[in-house]
Design a protein that fits this description.
single chain, about 200 residues, mainly beta, five-stranded mixed sheet, about 0% helix
């Protein structure tokens, strides 16, 4: 009799999956940029928010710098805080290396009054500063104590007000700017008119 021996060969197990693809290193490809207000009045502020994104659209860490195309209209600091300076429009940019994004900001003068009143309690002008729109009028109300109003030598300043008491005297401001003035009768009695 012949004995038949069956030999079973065991094959080593292996994975059917193909070669693994390495995860790409995140690279900055875009910056999402937003601003808390697209229109500001002079003197107000808004915050820029920049979010760096990688090639997969994921948020990543990157150093971002900010700039304004018209700093005389609105300035922006290193943390993205925007300050409106004067009426106009500017383009604000957030950049990191060669990647950047922009938003447009409009600045308006805001609503300034066409008239203001300054009183003279004691030896002081009150309020010390008034803000008016261009072509606006300021009225000085003089009590029983005599005062005058002498403007600094600033282009566009109106005529001085001579020494007056118990009277109301007005001046119109046709030019934008800051106009400082004083009473020469009483040392240290000063004031300011800001025309927008």
């Amino acid at each position: 009799m012949f004995a038949v021996a069956l030999v079973t060969a065991a094959c080593g197990g292996g994975s059917n999956a193909g070669p693994t693809t390495p995860t790409p290193t995140p690279a900055l490809t875009s910056i999402a940029l937003s601003i808390s207000a697209s229109s500001l009045t002079v003197g107000s502020t808004a915050q820029l928010t920049a979010t760096p994104k990688d090639q997969s659209g994921g948020t990543m860490t990157a150093t971002v710098s900010y700039a304004s195309s018209a700093p005389s209209v609105a300035s922006v600091n290193a943390s993205g805080l925007v300050t409106a300076v004067a009426a106009g429009q500017t383009v604000l940019t957030a950049s990191s290396g060669s990647v950047s994004n922009t938003v447009t900001l409009t600045v308006t003068a805001g609503a300034f009054p066409s008239a203001a009143t300054v009183t003279t309690p004691g030896n002081a002008f009150a309020p010390f500063q008034v803000d008016i729109a261009v072509n606006g009028t300021v009225q000085w109300q003089f009590g029983s104590v005599a005062h005058n109003v002498l403007f600094d030598a600033t282009a566009g300043a109106p005529a001085a007000i001579p020494i007056s008491s118990s009277a109301n005297v007005s001046r119109t401001f046709a030019t934008k700017g800051t106009f400082n003035y004083q009473c020469s009768v009483h040392t240290g009695m000063i004031g300011t008119v800001v025309v927008h």
